[in-house]
Amino acid sequence: MSAASQTLSTSTSRVLYRRTIWWVIWSFTEQATYQGYALPRLQVLTGRSWAAILSVGFGWALQHCFLPFSLDAKQLLFRFLIFLPLVIVMPVLYPRLRRLLPFVIAHWAMDFILTLMTIK
């Protein structure tokens, strides 16, 4: 196999993985990590819901700055600011519902729509 066809094969595999498997798994993983694990523990540690919500929201928005990876400062700031309202609202709503599944489904739907928008 030539280097060019091997690179194409690797590139195609990455695209297929990102568009078929990664976003399905990651929606659940993010919700379980940020809302199911970090939020309740930070609420207990800080004794304040607002501090836990802001901490979780900041970390969650920061993570989304680098997906996909870019070192463009304007792009990083844009991604942070565009995700911040959503990742603050979800932890505000989660303690009222105490169920991750609705958030996983909503997150999955958002990721699915974004995946469809990026298919060329």
Which features characterize this protein?
mainly alpha; 120 residues
SSE blueprint and pairings:
Layout: H1 3-46, H2 49-65, H3 73-97, H4 101-118
Helix pairs in contact: 1-2, 1-4, 2-3
Helix content: over 70%
Radius of gyration: 17 Å
Count of discrete domains: 1
Question: What is the number of beta strands?
Answer: 0
How is the biggest beta sheet arranged? none
Shape category: globular
The number of helical segments is 4
N-to-C SSE string, H for helix and E for strand:
HHHH
The fraction of residues assigned to DSSP E strands is under 5%
* Helix and strand composition category: mainly alpha
- Low-pLDDT segments: none
Characterization of this structure:
With 120 residues, the protein is mostly helical. The chain has one domain (21-118). It is 87% helix and 0% strand. The chain has helices spanning 3-46, 49-65, 73-97, 101-118. The mean pLDDT is 84.
Question: Can you summarize this structure?
Answer:
Helix content is 87%, strand content 0%.
